[in-house]
Amino acid sequence: MADYSNQSLSLIDSRPFVVPDLCNVGALSLLVLFGELLVLVLLFAGGGISWMRLALMSLFVQWVALSSAGLICASRRWLAGLGLLTGSLVAFGMVMGVTLTVGLFASWLLEGAVIWGTLAGQLVIAGIITALTLRYFYVQQQLRAQEQSELESRIQALQSRIRPHFLFNSMNIIASLIPTDPDTAETVVEDLSELFRASLNDAGNQVQLAEELDLCERYVRIEALRLGDRLKLDWQVETPERTVKIPLLTLQPLLENAIYHGIQPLPEGGTISVRLWFDSDRVNVEIDNPLPPDSQRSQSQGNKMALNNIRSRLAVLYGGRADLSTREADGRYVTALRYPLSMDAGERQ
User: Fold this and answer.
1) pLDDT tens digits, one per residue of 306-347
2) Which of 13, 18, 105, 172 supports an S-S bond with 83, CB 3.0-4.6 Å?
């Protein structure tokens, strides 16, 4: 029985400890707000109601809350390396230590002596709130991990659906080019290998924007051999700096949608416009293609599946700071992507 208990504790402690991100203005603002709400609850729960009592309680609670946040923020990297059980106990002990220190100082300053009953009540309240907060962050992390797992499964399903038909088309192109134009066939093989090397990587990886654009160009070269003069591209792309990144395989699927759902159904083909520009802190991309008047329902569903997967990936990486939208204008289908130049440190927690 003892061995079983030890194994259970070891299994729990092997899980990662989720360290709350309290190192930004938004988190600190919420902490101050919740602390003041707690003060009001305690104020009306018992004792006389006065401005002096409100001020003293607010000062005590805010000192405890902000000091605890600062200590956890400073120890964040170290705490993240601990297991779930050890990290939770250490973080809990930090908050209790701060509460005890502030409580002792307040008792000595206001009363001239330690009021142990009052101090014990403060520790009990702080312990309950700390335990609930740590539990909340743990549940949030579990939900995020489950969403990430489901997202990866959807991405793999999408890739497995797209990969075969594109591979067969590309192999047919290579086979037809080998007798007549072996140099072009070799180029197609190189482009195809780069595309599939990227598709086998983790779709959540960040790569340089220039690398993603290179994949798009390789993909277009292969499709141009299949569609011929029916496919025309209008590139209006600002040269990105090396520091600008993008989630791997974000633009290429959007370009694939434009070709399969905009150019391929049209016997005369058409032109796809790709525009990319930068604001002060955002990357802007617009891809528009001709809109066939009688698009089939199955094609629209496939288009939405790819867009929904990309939206999910952007939400995981950037939260609400990224946006992928579509619209119809003047007989063309426009896909617009906006995302920040950099990620916040806490958005992937």
Assistant:
1) 788 788 778 877 878 899 999 988 889 999 999 998 765 344
2) 13
How confident is the prediction for the chain on average, in pLDDT? Answer: 78
Separation CA 134–CA 141 (nearest Å): 11
pLDDT: which is higher, 320 or 251? 251
Domain ranges of the chain: 2-114, 151-340
**Interstrand relation of 270-278 and 231-237 (parallel, antiparallel or unpaired):** parallel
Q: Which CATH architecture has domain 151-340?
A: 2-Layer Sandwich (3.30)
Cα 171 to Cα 188: distance, rounded to the nearest angstrom? 9
User: 268 with 292: CB under 8 angstroms?
Assistant: no
Cα 205 versus chain centre, distance: 11
Per the structure block, which two tokens stand in for 192? Answer: 């195809």
| 179 SS3 class | coil
Question: 């070799």: which residue's tokens?
Answer: 186
Asked if residues 270 and 287 have their Cβ atoms less than 8 Å apart, the reply is: no
Q: Record the tokens describing residue 322, joined without a space.
A: 């990224």
Query: How far is CA 289 from each of CA 146, 203, 274, 277, 312, rounded to the nearest angstrom?
Result: 36, 25, 9, 18, 23
